[in-house]
Amino acid sequence: MIRLVIIDDHRLFVDGIKAILQNESGIKLVNGYDDSVDIHKMLDDDKPDVVVVDMYMPRKSGIMLSREIKSYIPKVKFILLSMEVDSLFVAELESIGVEAYLSKELDASKLIDAIKRVYAGEVIYQATSLLSTEWPDVLSDDFHLTDREIEVLEYIKRGKTNKEIAELTNRSVWTIMTHRRNIRNKIRLLRGSR
Fold first, then answer.
1. Cα(37)–Cα(61) distance, rounded to whole angstroms?
2. What pTM did the predictor assign?
3. Per-residue model confidence (pLDDT) at position 93
């Protein structure tokens, strides 16, 4: 039996997953939390095999929670869900040891399949790159990136994690994540208009 925990600030999402798993043999949803979860208590009480966590939450991001939990119990498997999966985050997630990075819009059967595959030791990344391999094109004035965003993008290009970029730029990790999101949105907006 796979012991599953979900961390998401939308209770409706947690309840929806619980309903989906009621008739699913082999997976037991032991608990659902928002981003104020006490991770040590959760790990001790629930003993999860797999944690499904939302990438963006108001108090703590999925990346932050993944890093904290992995540092405490590395064997816990992680599935990060986001409305928009993007390769800008892949290096960061791989460095933490996150096993899966998937779209929050995937259907129930695919989420169940992903939980089983991750538990079995697979790594699944569905991120697609919004960035051209021609970096000078991305850094052109057309994208209207700020100086700070260009600086962050240069560090991303070198494979730096959010934490490393935050330390190098004297900013918070949350600020760096915001820059990443803004970069992604600007690139998507311009490319979508072409």
1. 12
2. 0.68
3. 84
